[in-house]
Amino acid sequence: MKEVIRVGADPFPPYQYVNADGTLDGLDYRVVKAVLERAGYTPKITIDTWSKVWSCFLKGELDALFQVQDTPERLAKYFFSKRLRDAVTGAVTLKKELESLTSYKEIPEQNLSIAVIEGFSYGYQIDSLADTSKKTYPDTLGLLKAVETGEADLGIVDQGVYTHLKKQGKTGSFLTIPGLEYLRPLYVMFRESFDRDAFNSALENKRG
Questions:
Q1: I want to staple 88 with a disulfide (CB 3.0 to 4.6 A). Which of 29, 44, 103, 159 is the partner?
Q2: More reliable by pLDDT, 207 or 129
Q3: Are residues 48 and 115 in the same domain?
Q4: Confidence band, pLDDT 50/70/90 cuts, at residue 173
């Protein structure tokens, strides 16, 4: 087993983020780091935009990514841990008439545009939509700004991240759309099965 394991994630406060002094922190960051250390690794964790960490993972420069959505394509190539946690994903808007939406299928039907994070997988509800309905941005603040300026009709957000940013005064107030909320399971994705197995064993011991 390797001693150092290189792990990446995108900034998603309060789950993982970089402090002003350059140190890393966050709820998921602490859990993943503790489990990897319990498994016998020395984790070297990088937090950067999703497009950057995903590119590094594909090139073999990172051994794992955390807070990842599973997809059939990813499951066929890589190794997923047991479920880390569930995230509440939903949509926000400034257009009151959109509060009544109950399905993401209505977005192309009404010729609406949604702001999403570039390269992100949100589950079939959103991933199945045509790219013509989506506008991509590097992070949550970027996509919220697009909704604020009218560049996009709706923004897709992790509710925990949105609530955190709102409490910090980093974003304005948006309307949430109850009918578009759903749970999204998140995992740690590994390039090698033995790293996944070691993580799972340590995760189960932690939960036990």
A1: 159
A2: 129
A3: no
A4: confident
Residue labelled with tokens 């690794």: 41
Give me the chain's average pLDDT, please. 94
Closest CA to 91 of 175, 10, 151, 171: 175
Q: Which two tokens stand for residue 93?
A: 């808007």
Give residue 39's domain range: 4-84+185-207
Same domain, 77 and 109: no
| Predicted TM-score (pTM) of this structure | 0.85
Sequence-ordered list of residues with C-beta below 8 angstroms from that of 72, at least 6 positions apart, any chain: none
Closest CA to 74 of 182, 191, 185, 198: 191
Q: How long, in residues, is the chain?
A: 208
Are 50 and 43 in contact by the 8 Å Cβ rule? The answer is: no
Say if residues 2 and 41 touch (Cβ distance below 8 Å).
yes
What is the total count of domains within the chain?
Answer: 2
Specify the 3-state DSSP secondary structure of 89: strand
At 24, which amino acid appears? Answer: L
| Burial class of 19 by CB neighbour count within 10 A (0 to 12, 13 to 18, 19+) | exposed
Q: What string of DSSP letters covers 13-76?
A: TTTBEE-TTS-EE-HHHHHHHHHHHHTT-EEEEEE--HHHHHHHHHTTS-SEEEEE---HHHHH
